[in-house]
Amino acid sequence: MRHSILLLLAACKGPSTPVDTDADADTDTDADADTDADADTDSDADTDTDPPAGEASIALMSRDGSTRWVALFAEDLQGFVNAAECVQDSALCRTTLPAVDARVTAPGVLDPNLAVPTTIPDLRVDGVAPLPPFPGAFSYEGFIDPAPTAPIDVTWSAKPGWPAYVGTGLVAPVEPLVVSEPTGRLVLEPGGTVPFRWTAGTGTIELEVVTRAPGGSQARWVYGLADDGSFDLAVDDLGLREPDTRVDLALSRVAYGTDANGPNPVRWSHRDTAASTGWFAGARMAVTAPASCGDSQALAPLAPGRYIGDFGTSDLDPGQDSCVGFPTPSAEVMLPVEIPDGTLAIVRAEALGGYAKAYALTDCADADTCVTGADGTFSVDGAAHWVWLNDTGATASLTLVVESSGTEDTWILDYTLESPVVADVLADTCADLGTPLTASARLVGGLAGLSADLDPILGGCGFASYDGPDALVPVQVGPGERLFVRATGSVGLHATSDCGTPTTCTGSVLPGWALSWVNATAAPVVQVVAADTYSVYADPGDFVLDIGLFTPAPLTPADTCADLASAPLLTTGQHHFEGVLPGFSDDLDLASPGPSCTGYASNGQDGLVRVALEAGETIEVDYVRTGGDGVVYLLADCADTASAVACDDNVFSVPGMDAPEHFVWTNDTGAAGTWTLVLDAFVTASTAPFLLDVDIR
What pTM did the predictor assign? Predict the structure, then answer.
């Protein structure tokens, strides 16, 4: 995979300097009335136009002979500099070039919910205008074909608050990066190295490393390297501990510059990149892809379990408007499965280095026989999640197909079967709503044949548009009670207090996240929970909703590791808490000594809870702070943040609260033990209350 990225940036937000736009020769001294230093007042009709307090950025990515570029103009980007790197494929926000031969922890990423979108008319990049934003998006994109080989022009016309900009020949291409290693699938092992070899040049080299653990935690680093053609990355430096952690590696030759002409200096960077992806060695069963559909049928049915393998042929494609939602022309693996009647099949598939697609066929040779499927493009982890309930009255013999989004050569698969209790309480429309649930429930349902009634983004709720079919269930939440909903399957979740009125949306989350809401009033409140799909083209599929109604118990964690013996001890079962950390000290920081397992610091107060896990037990944690930015992690040694076995510091937010920090970790040490769960905060002096859900099973 090869691509180039160009980054442009107008000045960071901050106080602006007044600009005199009238025809006379005097100079303004303030930002409003047009009055110069000698006290006379202009009588012309024009007004001053201050430089914008926000940021503008453009990112270019070249691949396979064409270039895609993304443009962002926002009046508030939290002071980040290279905003384009935040927008483009969830990449980093980097403010400075790392020192040569030194590793730096990358800064945080952009939170779109804190950006105020604006419109820039007549934007052009090398003469190409952008496409309009997608629903719910705040960025613009365009395409240049073929990839640019000459200096790039960037221009936009003026609008109120944004002066016109002309950047002619602004950015010259960097010398192409020719990489010989690494190649193929990478398996990272403790004590090992990843060799990088490229044709030496005269530029500056950056190596960006992003690790994504199965529980959702991420870490990001940037290495600044000399352009001498060789670097060996030590695996142990990455602090990897969770099996099946994905590691994305991007080696780039980069150049940076600034255009200081005009009221707003434009910073730019241009990069040519070769990317690769690997896995931290994990305990998965290797599967060889069958050479054809016929060969797959000769295999024994796949048993529930965890698998890894390489993609094989490229024979199947359900096409547009199919059970996957979009065409799937890439390579796939085909595996036979048998699902007994009344059994729920749950699939999670991931493609190394890209987005996964997964579906099930009744006839391996006929892609039109798809019964269910999912596209991981719009999920938070790039994985395809689907759920299918066999209610046919007989055992179903299906072909499970996992497919890549492009050229990825490796897949992983989690396949489980369970016998659910089906509750028929889901409604199609607001008019169909029945009696509200008043207790926790596990619901199994499907969206086939249902209409598309609700879309939270229309009410300014959340950060994704759900314009596909949705299923609704009313839930009565008592005073002081908490509603907690987790979905299994390729559905997102949102809730509203007045069904059909988008502005009453109380929360919206992407597939893979839990929805949480607390009734802080003195009266019962009915929340309508919607299991929704992002596209009218996606197959509705089946899903599971685990709806929890409970009053959180107060929790007082221990303050320091010295107090750990007095910390609450959690054992097997479900636990739901609320609390605050008033006056607690900041003893632990993931960035000290580092590397941070989330890629960020945790500079706020921290509270400690002990968790006891038997061999093979799994802990699932959800942690949110209302009005603050939380960080959560699990330590093998309370005094050593480098002993973290799982962690998360999410970057998106949910209305009224912090991002839903979440991780899952299984004790595969072979022995029972006790770990320290740290409830931390990103910033100092954070007194925001928290909600904590722990499931040990």
Answer: 0.57
Residue 120 Rama label (left phi>0; alpha psi -120 to 50; beta): beta
Cβ(384)–Cβ(441) under 8 Å? no
612-639: average pLDDT = 86
CA–CA distance, 126 with 654 (Å, rounded to integer): 37
641: Cα separation from own chain's centroid:
24
The token pair that represents 694 in the structure block: 């722990």
> What contacts 295, CB < 8 A, 6 or more positions away?
none
Q: Could you tell me what percentage of the chain is helix, strand and coil, using 3-state DSSP and rounding each to the nearest 5?
A: 5, 45, 50
SS3 85: helix
- In the structure encoding, which two tokens stand for residue 685, read together? 């002096």
Give the pLDDT score at 322.
Answer: 67
Q: Which helix (H) or strand (E) holds 295?
A: helix 293-297
Separation of alpha carbons 293 and 314, rounded Å? 10
Question: For residue 616, what is the DSSP state?
Answer: T
Token pair 């936009």 is at which residue?
Answer: 156
- DSSP for 308-330, written as a single string: EEE---------TTSSSSS---S
Confidence class for position 383, pLDDT limits 50, 70, 90: confident
pLDDT above 90 covers a percentage of the chain that reads 18
**Which of 74, 73, 17, 76 is closest to 48 using CA atoms?**
17
Q: Strand locations in 584-655, DSSP E? A: 607-613, 618-625, 630-635, 644-648
Cβ(538)–Cβ(465) below 8 Å: no
Q: Are the C-beta atoms of residues 153 and 125 closer than 8 Å to each other?
A: yes
**CA gap 495, 526 in Å, rounded:** 10
Q: For 5, what's the count of Cα atoms within 13 Å in the CB-facing half-sphere?
A: 26
Dihedral of alpha carbons 228, 106, 353, 187, sign = positive
Using the 8-state DSSP alphabet, how is residue 128 labeled? B
Pairing of strands 441-446, 332-339: unpaired
* pLDDT(604) > 90: no
Q: Residue 509: its pLDDT value, please? A: 80
Q: Report whether 335 contacts 309 (CB < 8 A).
A: no
- What's the confidence (pLDDT) of residue 355? 79
| Structure token pair of residue 601 | 């610091």
Residue 365 contacts residue 336 (beta carbons within 8 Å): no
pLDDT of amino acid 537: 54
Letter string b/e over residues 280-305, b meaning 16 or more CB atoms within 10 A of that residue's CB:
bbeebeebebbeebeebeeeeebeee
The string of pLDDT tens digits covering residues 40-74 is 433 343 434 444 445 667 777 766 566 777 777 66
145 confidence band (pLDDT: 50, 70, 90): confident
CA distances from 674 to 98, 564, 661 (A): 38, 11, 21
Residue 323, sorted as left (phi over 0), alpha (psi -120 to 50) or beta, turns out to be alpha
Q: How far is CA 128 from the centre of its chain?
A: 29
Residue with tokens 């299991």: 531
Altogether, the residues listed in the chain come to a count of: 697
- How many whole angstroms separate alpha carbon 161 and alpha carbon 189? 53
Phi first, then psi, for residue 383 (nearest 5°) are -95, 150
| DSSP codes, 45-70 | S----PPPSSEEEEEEEEETTEEEEE
Confidence of residue 526 (pLDDT cuts 50, 70, 90): very high
Cβ(125)–Cβ(170) below 8 Å: no
In whole angstroms, what is the distance from residue 61 CA to residue 90 CA?
Answer: 13
